[in-house]
């Protein structure tokens, strides 16, 4: 033995044309496309069946509200799909957003009506009381700051890009913003960015002189829509700039399609597709190629009485390498099982506890990624944030949804 480490597959070509001409990537893309179509077809079929079996509550007649609280007017047309204000407090559009329908009698008793489509008063009623009426459609009362958040917390990660010898632990700071782009169609635009600063959780890189930490900057831009029929979709692009053993820039496309089965339950599918790799990256004296790992998930999100939600998902990813800078490489794996979960729980008007974890099998060479921390809402809308029409449909990219593979060159 001369001490030379075994070589993996050749470096992957860079650019759109070589990407399409690569037989191996083309086959992988076909498999992923078929997988996404099958998942989407299953979701749409299930959603259609459940929708056909469901029925809305009877419409509720909105009555005048008391005006000795911070309400804007005597009569407000309240919107469905959104949580009611706290018992014993008055509706404040500046901090709560449009709540569910309720009338004076039940409101005074501290028992808001169950969510239901609102039956408006006759048009003449509003014309005669125009000075005392605040007319509101779902989402029209949202301010930009109602859909702006800042996250800070802990971050942990292990992926194939760590060459089999490292893991990371440190901190994460992120911001995310959703704004109305076309109110008539209900289409929103989102942009968010984050910085992860982590230290190596294993000594190997330090011993071989390849560094002791990593800094990552994720950026997400996208479009999304929540329809009155219960559908939600989002399309975005994720950028990753990282300084690790070397500087690398990567990209991926991300898609979400969901459907509200009930007021408190949503199912859907997500997909992440690699678009830009990074070649000639130095890792402890070895040239490697880094690339996002294609994935597709089915998810279920449940909202609770506490106004928080939990979400779980299962899915499949394309194969990844089992390269190891110390012991040598094993053959690349085929498609792998992926699963994970997340939660978001408001604590008060301005803070929520937020966490997410994603695991790709097998655990020794796949991914183990998670973060946990506090999400701050400067506008005071923590309780209603996840129900807002223009709340970003995609979270800011992170290792939990941006897994990175590594190949020797």
Short account of what is shown:
It holds the Pfam family DUF6666. The chain has 409 residues and is mainly beta.
Q: Return the CATH class of the domain at 150-408.
A: Mainly Beta
As a percent range, the share of helical residues equals: 10-25%
The total count of strands amounts to 19
Overall 3D geometry? globular
Whole-number mean pLDDT: 76
CATH topology of the domain at 150-408: Porin
Ranges where pLDDT stays below 50 over 5 or more residues in a row are 1-21, 50-127, 129-140
Q: What fraction of the residues are assigned to beta strands by DSSP?
A: 35-45%
CATH architecture of the domain at 150-408: Beta Barrel
- Note the main sheet: 12 strands, antiparallel, barrel
Strand order of the largest sheet: 5-6-7-8-9-10-11-14-15-16-17-18
Q: By helix and strand content, what is the structural category?
A: mainly beta
Distance between the termini: 21 Å
Looking at how many chains there are and whether they match, the oligomeric state comes to: single chain
Helix-strand pattern = HHEEHHEHEEEEHEEEEEEEEEEEE
- Count of runs of 4 or more consecutive helical residues: 6
Radius of gyration, Cα only, in angstroms? 24 Å
CATH superfamily of the domain at 150-408: Inverse autotransporter, beta-domain
């Amino acid at each position: 033995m001369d001490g030379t480490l075994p070589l993996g597959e050749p470096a992957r070509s860079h650019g759109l044309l070589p990407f399409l001409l690569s037989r191996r990537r083309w086959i992988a893309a076909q498999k992923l496309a078929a997988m996404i179509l099958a998942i989407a077809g299953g979701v749409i079929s299930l959603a259609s069946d459940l929708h056909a079996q469901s029925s809305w509550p009877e419409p509720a007649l909105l009555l005048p509200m008391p005006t000795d609280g911070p309400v804007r007017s005597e009569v407000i047309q309240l919107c469905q799909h959104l949580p009611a204000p706290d018992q014993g407090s008055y509706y404040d559009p500046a901090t709560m957003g449009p709540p569910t329908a309720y009338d004076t009698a039940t409101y005074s008793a501290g028992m808001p009506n169950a969510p239901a489509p609102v039956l408006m008063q006759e048009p003449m009623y509003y014309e005669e009381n125009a000075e005392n009426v605040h007319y509101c459609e779902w989402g029209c009362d949202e301010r930009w700051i109602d859909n702006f958040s800042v996250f800070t917390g802990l971050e942990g990660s292990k992926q194939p890009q760590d060459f089999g010898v490292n893991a990371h632990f440190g901190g994460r700071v992120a911001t995310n913003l959703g704004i109305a782009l076309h109110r008539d169609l209900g289409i929103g635009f989102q942009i968010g960015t984050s910085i992860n600063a982590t230290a190596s959780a294993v000594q190997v890189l330090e011993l071989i002189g390849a560094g002791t930490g990593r800094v990552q900057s994720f950026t997400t831009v996208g479009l999304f829509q929540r329809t009155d029929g219960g559908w939600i979709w989002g399309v975005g692009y994720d950028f990753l700039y990282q300084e690790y053993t070397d500087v690398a820039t990567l990209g991926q496309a991300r898609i979400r399609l969901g459907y509200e089965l009930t007021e408190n339950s949503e199912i859907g599918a997500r997909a992440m597709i690699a678009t830009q790799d990074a070649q000639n990256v130095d890792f402890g004296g070895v040239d490697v190629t880094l690339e996002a790992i294609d994935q597709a998930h089915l998810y279920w999100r449940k909202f609770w009485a506490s106004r928080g939600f939990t979400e779980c998902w299962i899915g499949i990813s394309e194969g990844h390498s089992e390269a190891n800078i110390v012991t040598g490489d094993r053959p690349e794996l085929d498609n792998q099982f992926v699963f994970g979960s997340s939660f978001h729980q408001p604590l008060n008007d301005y803070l929520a506890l937020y966490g997410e974890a994603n695991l790709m099998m097998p655990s020794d060479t796949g991914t183990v990624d998670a973060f946990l921390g506090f999400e701050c809402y400067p506008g005071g809308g923590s309780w209603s944030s996840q129900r807002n029409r223009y709340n970003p449909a995609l979270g800011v990219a992170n290792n939990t949804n941006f897994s990175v593979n590594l190949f020797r060159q």
